[in-house]
Design goal:
The complex is a heterodimer. Chain A is mainly beta. In chain B, the strands form two sheets. In chain B, strands 2, 4, 5, 6, 9, 10 and 11 form a seven-stranded mixed beta sheet that branches. A four-stranded antiparallel beta sheet of chain B has the order 1-3-8-7, with no helix packed on it. The N and C termini of chain B lie far apart (37 Å). The chains are: A mainly beta, B mainly beta. The interface between A and B is medium-sized, with 23 and 28 residues.
């Protein structure tokens, strides 16, 4: 079974609209961390936001917020007021346990922002 | 300060040759990770180092792949007898270590096996 599922292979969104990128995860470990990374066409991986499994509040970083629904094992990324520069691949990822161990990535969602 | 660097940035090789990919992590980062990203795919975990030891080698695809890290710093990923299916971008990341959330990625090495 996949540990990280991103069901949207591609999305087209009008500039200035809000975007929600879906991510569901599967783990039996009560301690885990969830990440979102952005990968522009240039190829570098850019860390966006992190949510710990015990964090009480949803993580926010500027225009990025993580809609963490623990019971549903869902960690959707919300981008407010989208910009043309947001066009990129977006990866959801998870680390299980408190060990600084491997991070498992989803297959990604390609986001296209339309002018 | 300097970020994670990788060399070479691009490598074209013939099937059957050996290649070495290098990763220079951020100074002071004790954890180092190697990932592989095939065209249009997500990241596939290969191996993780804490200091010079690799507690998890489960992601290495075959015994043709090996990695080492010396002095708690530079790491090399070696692929022996390369095959065409090894063609991918090989990404390295580093982090401060235990309980530090963020991994910082290098620009990757694009490997093409002809």
């Amino acid at each position: 079974a996949q540990k990280i599922t991103q069901t949207q292979p591609g999305m087209f969104v009008q500039e200035k609209e809000a975007v929600t990128l879906d991510c569901t995860y599967d783990t039996s470990d009560p301690s885990y961390g969830l990440f979102w990374y952005k990968q522009p066409s240039s190829g570098e991986m850019i860390f966006l936001i992190y949510q710990g499994s015990y964090d009480q509040q949803n993580a926010t970083e500027g225009r990025y917020s993580l809609n963490f629904q623990k019971a549903r094992k869902s960690a959707n990324l919300v981008i407010s007021a989208s910009q043309l520069g947001d066009s990129a691949m977006y990866f959801c990822a998870m680390r299980e346990g408190w060990r600084d161990d491997k991070i498992i990535f989803g297959k990604g969602t390609r986001l296209h922002i339309l002018p | 300060g300097a970020g994670v660097s990788q060399s070479p940035s691009n490598k074209v090789t013939e099937k059957g040759k050996d290649v070495e990919l290098r990763c220079d992590p951020i100074s002071g980062h004790t954890a180092l990770y190697w990932y592989r990203q095939s065209l249009g795919q997500g990241l596939e975990f290969l191996i993780y180092f804490q200091g010079n030891s690799a507690p998890d080698k489960s992601g290495l695809p075959s015994d043709r792949f090996s990695a080492e890290r010396t002095g708690g710093s530079v790491s090399t990923l070696t692929i022996q007898r390369t095959q065409q299916e090894d063609s991918a971008v090989y990404l390295c990341a580093s982090s401060l270590g235990r309980n530090q959330e963020t991994q910082y990625f290098g620009p990757g090495t694009r490997l093409l096996v002809l």
